[in-house]
Amino acid sequence: MRFEGHLCLILHGHLPFVRHPDRERFYEESWLYEAMIETYLPLIRVLEGWWRDGIEVALTLSLSPTLCAMLRDSLLQRRFDAHLERLIRFTWHERRRTSASPARERIARLYFERWKAMQALYWDSNGDLLRAFRTFEERHQLELMTSSATHALLPLLTSHPSSIRAQVQIACDQHRAYFNRSPSGLWLPECGYTPAIEPYLREAQIRWFVLEGHGLQQARPRPYAGVFAPVFTPRGLAAFGRDPRSVSDVWDRQRGYPGDGRYRDFYRDIGFDRDLDDVKEVLPDGQHRGFTGLKYHRIAEGPSGKALYDPAAALSAVEEHAADFLSARMAQMFDLFGRLSRPPLVVAPFDAELFGHWWFEGPDFLDAFGRKAYREQSVLRLTTPTQYLKEHPTQAVAQPNASSWGPGGYWKLWLDQANHWIRPHLDVAQSRMEELARYFPDDQTLQGRAAKQAGRELLLAQASDWPFLLQTGTAAAYAKRRVVGHMMRFNELWRQLMEKGQVNGDWLTYVESVDNLFPELSNRYWSHPPSS
Amino acid sequence: MSMQQALNRAGTTPRFLLSRSAMVSDHHKANWLAPLSETDGAADGAGAASPGEGTAGKPDRLPPIPRIPPILLEGDCPSPLSEADLLGSLGWRDLEWLDDEPESALDTSGLPNAYGTEQISLLARDPHWLYAHWDFGSWRLQTLNRRARDGHLCLLTYKGTAREWVAETAVHPESIEWFLPVASGGEEYLVEIGLWRSDGLWESVGCSNVAWSPWDGEAQEQEVWHVKLGSDQASGGDPGHPASATVMISPHRIRALPCEPAPAAAFPVDFPLARLAPSSYEARE
Description:
The complex is a heterodimer of chains A (532) and B (285).
Chain A: E1 5-13, H1 30-52, E2 59-63, H2 65-71, H3 74-97, H4 102-124, H5 129-138, E3 142-147, H6 161-179, E4 186-187, H7 198-203, E5 208-211, H8 213-217, E6 231-232, E7 238-241, H9 244-251, H10 270-273, H11 276-279, E8 297-302, E9 305-308, H12 311-340, E10 345-351, H13 362-375, E11 380-382, H14 385-391, E12 394-397, H15 422-439, H16 446-461, H17 465-472, H18 476-500, H19 505-514
Parallel strand pairs in A: 1-2, 1-10, 1-11, 2-3, 3-4, 5-7, 6-12
Antiparallel strand pairs in A: 6-7, 8-9
Chain B: H1 3-10, H2 18-33, H3 40-48, H4 70-73, H5 83-88, E1 120-126, E2 129-134, H6 138-147, E3 154-159, E4 164-170, E5 177-181, E6 188-196, E7 202-207, E8 211-212, E9 223-228, H7 231-234, E10 252-253, H8 278-284
Antiparallel strand pairs in B: 1-2, 2-5, 3-4, 3-6, 6-7, 6-8, 9-10
């Protein structure tokens, strides 16, 4: 049977830049360590397995510049190594502690062996996960894409186009530095799109991006293929639409696969269950309760609360769900082919951290799905957006609508009563940054360095993560502290440069050592009006 | 030492970073509003000198504020903290006090309430809500409120390239931002901030950037044009504009798939999609 359709699985990997060198252990740094152990390293293991076994399927992986910066940071690498070592040591003791209960001991052993394997993988890659991902791209197993520099929601920057330009250009510069090639695709943070951002994507030679479904369905004129084919915008970029049905199979809160009772429960963690003194060693900051990653229970309730996790039952669920997802996509392809008279395309983007971090068995699901898709059918083929455009260079022309994948479909999550106070400060800082870039050269003089650092502080304050955390009430105090801190540093740098006329070199060196991302940052992107 | 401790020691309000903004306000007073302070009538008179006054449909911009040479500011308003205190307070370690601050204390958390740039900025949050923010220092805001007939500023909302007036919104005297409802998406909007004077004339204080709100709903037009991008463009090289030598355009009037195709029910068996014959599609390719 010939291929009837294409499926693009896109994983968006992103974490905000969290790095606190002045603390030995910092609570929020554990976000990175958890994602490395549970998502990025397991994903590398899946891709290695596919390569070893000749499974020729391709995924698309977006790695945000802030995530890349953290994965390459030597301090965070050392801390991750120590964190993983603590976990392994703890689970070794845990096996002895649970030896009286074979069911628990089996789970403890599972974690011990899994984390040992992750440690071996980490050491094999010399701690450089980006190099590993680059290798997969060279083998055509992956297409790597970038995102905006600090995951800023670009439609909220339209009153200051130079900020859009800086976010996009700096992201592409970083991508080239890490992966030695320019990205064709740029993941729009939160799928946030408005036509005003396109000139800056084009200027950066971005070829395609992904929209929330309604952004494409409400395009002018209305695309006849809905979200099942990309459109070319009038500016020549390709816009792919997210297919809500395939995404909801996996991601839906009520009926998504991760909610199956056989899977491991995310929330029941020994970091909250056990005596504080027993688990201090593996807590995120060694003091306060938090997730450790060591969880003994599955989602399903037993006679007395959550039942113990059964790895074999979970793997069986993985096989069932991978088969179900494949058959659902095949049915979708047949259905669409009859309607479209052309090979349909289904684009299914997910947060990468869903697979492994939130859904423990997620990487196993990806592995099983990839293998089944390659071996057991020929109705659909996993491809990447760039490959699809090569094979299908003719598409409809339409202007997509502004949209995001947030609640309501626009930006109310990032601009509401909980976080609106950020905008006025950003507005002024963005104007002032244009001023700094005009007045101070892009060089290594003290003033040039201060202007660049002001750019870093502004970029960090623009991240969509802070208003998100403030709105959802998750780590809101930390998010507030980050915005306030970056804006204070920006304001002080601006004051030293524009009002005082003298930069405090010692303090600048300190700030550069703390917010040290994008060492090659150029502030010229803020300095002159962007092309339109 | 935490920032809060430092501030307590210095016996001042936590708004120390506002000091420079206050200077801008003072300067602004000297160069822009000074004539207004002579008499109340002169204040109104100065407003009347503004070219856009009384013409709500023609928003005016304030004249740009000249940059102040730093030397003129030296000693005007000494910082209550030493530089060491100030810089030390900008490290993470010293921002921990924020953890214990209630949400309502955000405006005293080390950032100024306003910077005094006199700019008004506008964003479209969705098809039916705009967000406007104006950056006036408190002194300037109080002055404007005093000049207003009703004691507060107003926002006038315009839409379209013709700048059609659509709404007037009274804002709280102390507010520096407002969410504005609008009826229709897919429009350009612009907001003018100003006040109604006691003599009944409109005095414009500033004008925002133009913000475009998303379309609200599906398009009616279904005329589809197809474009073929060159192989260099399709392979991720320099993306060219469709209007290049490699472009093929074929208009076809066909039916589009319905919106929200997520549930299976959205694909009825008798869905009236006008088929494109495979041959015609291949021919265009």
